[in-house]
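Table S5 (text form). Sequence records supplied for joint modeling of the two-component complex.
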Amino acid sequence: MSGGPPRGLPSTGPHSLLDMPHPLAGSSSEEAVGGDSTPSPDLLMARSFGDKDLILPNGGTPAGTSSPASSSSLLNRLQLDDDIDGETRDLFVTVDDPKKHVCTMETYITYRITTKSTRVEFDLPEYSVRRRYQDFDWLRNKLEESQPTHLIPPLPEKFVVKGVVDRFSEEFVETRRKALDKFLKRITDHPVLSFNEHFNIFLTAKDLNAYKKQGMALLSRVGESVKHVTGGYKLRSRPLEFAAIGDYLDTFALKLGTIDRIAQRIIKEEIEYLVELREHGPVYSTWSALEGELAEPLEGVSACIGHCSTALEELTDDMTEDFLPVLREYILYSDSMKGVLKKRDQVQAEYEAKLEAVALRKEDRPKVPADVEKCQDRMECFNADLKADMERWQSSKRQDFRQLLMGMADKNIQYYEKCLMAWESIIPLLQEKPEAK
Amino acid sequence: MEQAPPDLERQWQPAPLEPLGHPDAELQAAVDEEAEVSRDEGPGDGTMTENNFGLKKIEISVSEAEKRTGRNAMNMQETYTAYLIETRSVEHTDGQSVLTDSLWRRYSEFELLRNYLLVYYPHIVVPPLPEKRAEFVWHKLSADNMDPDFVERRRIGLENFLLRVASHPILCRDKIFYLFLTQEGNWKETVNETGFQLKADSRLKALNATFRVKNPDKRFTELKHYSDELQSVISHLLRVRARVADRLYGVYKVHGNYGRVFSEWSAIEKEMGDGLQSAGHHMDVYASSIDDILEDEEHYADQLKEYLFYAEALRAVCRKHELMQYDLEMAAQDLASKKQQCEELATGTVRTFSLKGMTTKLFGQETPEQREARIKVLEEQINEGEQQLKSKNLEGREFVKNAWADIERFKEQKNHDLKEALISYAVMQISMCKKGIQVWTNAKECFSKM
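The corresponding structure-token record, covering 887 residues in total, follows.
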């Protein structure tokens, strides 16, 4: 995506970045490295995701090269480079390298954010900064404030209520890292959001906290104006197309919720099955100790069951770490989208109310007053932004779920293949005649 | 322990069969004439097998099960299941089998047959019956004796029992067994007329012997220990396996929910709809595949159960040895004490306590004539006792020899059968894995078209 307003969208995306001086300009511009802990001179785009990762539109190719178009036959490979807009990419963001920080007041994790871009909005071609979850949270809030007409991607949940989850366990941190990476990549892919100045600051600022304290200085025009809609207006009826979106999102969230519950239940049943398996195998070992000729076959069966147990544990871990979080993200996503729909309703309601007020005044003027026109503008912009975002969302949702469900199928296939191998390898042992030994 | 005089070679014979009239003479002759007994490797899987019975090869099958109502001993109405036993003899010339006998028996009659065999062949590891009541069930199976799955598995188990007996080199020649297969009416009376219940050792006696025997054959002690351990480990295995089956059932069935929700979800989707819908169908297939899988596994469980019950039969043989040994020890002890008594009477020294000695002290010395009489009685008793001890010794040794021969035969059979069972279990697991791969590959294909 090259600089300038994306084609076809009459949105009033922020152009203000070019006007605003970079808050940190002049102080550390020669340093490419940001962050508060270890400097990382190596700014090569690290492979921050393993081969189990979801398909991400911003594939991990080095800056400057365009991603090859994908064909559906490549869907088996999870690292699919899919260029949604068909244009050359000029912004790449990756989240990796989680590190624990122990301070007097608290312990927390930071992640390294690596940015490579040829966009003019970036002073340097590469940046590396460290951010923690609350920084992401701040970014998201800012985006919601400044881009209320757009769909902002969800963050992974702040707290994990269920069970006793160790916030610092490798699995939890890795799951979170993937989600944060996905969050930033979704923004990167967005023709409007990716140009947001808060996003830019987030990616580049050495000291984000200082910037945060500056407050509301950088609200965009649309953000400002929409903020003033107090919500006192009631919409008579949603236009059909938005009503359809609302209905879709309602059902979608419902179905996802059901799938989430099913998936959790399956994992629970599998874990209970695993518990029994772990007792099952050793009984064959105990029996083997009693026997002569049967000792080896029985021990073999015991080992086999052990292999299957291990494979099952891997399956449940994978599903817990890779499958469930993505489902939950989408549920959060659709919730926030419904919020945006409501805001749109507000804007329309205000416009209609003002229009009605004008009509009631029965004035002779054929010309519509300026503020009503502004309302209409706002509404039309909102509608256009939302429609475009919905289309984009539908498309990547389709990609994401295709990958997610194929991944689920894959994990199950791998589980069965491991078990199959174990059992097939034991058949010759069982068939062995005693004389052959 | 007294040593018996040199052994007399004497063939161990089962208890004499009651002569029963005309058809039996022929059979008796036929059985006696038979020079060889074919040794089968053991059926193990409930299919028809051949054996040499008399002069003909026969095939036995328990082909049907039927629910019946009748009146029991207390004239109350009861429901029970009857099983059809068909016997076919195979003509050597053309290999065709001809149905020679078919009759109905109920479970209690099988029990009667087995109890008879236990009494008359205590040195044989007598094949066990399938369980009376369903045990080690996982939640789906009914524990009800009338449940069709249970009845079917019991039918197979009963057939297996008959085949095991028919292929045992010694048991197959038993008259009562032959009549069980051929004489429907009056068979129960015939068995009871043998008076086998009276010959049975009481449990109490056997237990008593177990605790008090001093010098049992070490091999039997070890074997008894083994059979205890085997019983314990197979029970544990069956219990855990049942729980595993239960859990596996849960895992598969929950996947069925995906079918419904994918279908509902596909209704609101445009391009994704078809893929979701068809994937959902595969999830349904997956969920329902577990029923057959677990049904197959039940057969494996039945094979394990047979050997669980065989462990009990093994233990019975060991107990019989203990009993005989204890008997022998008691007899020897008794003989020794009588001899000592005799000696004391002869020499006039009193070392052992005797009632006579006591009364003599109280009521006065006995006369020399009285003493002579007593010595004479004792000497007779000692003589008798020595004869008895000799024959008991012989019996004991015969028992050990024959029992151990059957135990070796049993061990071979057990190793073979259990290996086969383990192989079939592995094959079942392989089949389950392949089915799983198939279903998920199909689902993945559908997802890829989303």
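Note: Residues 123 and 343 of chain A are 35 Å apart (CA to CA).
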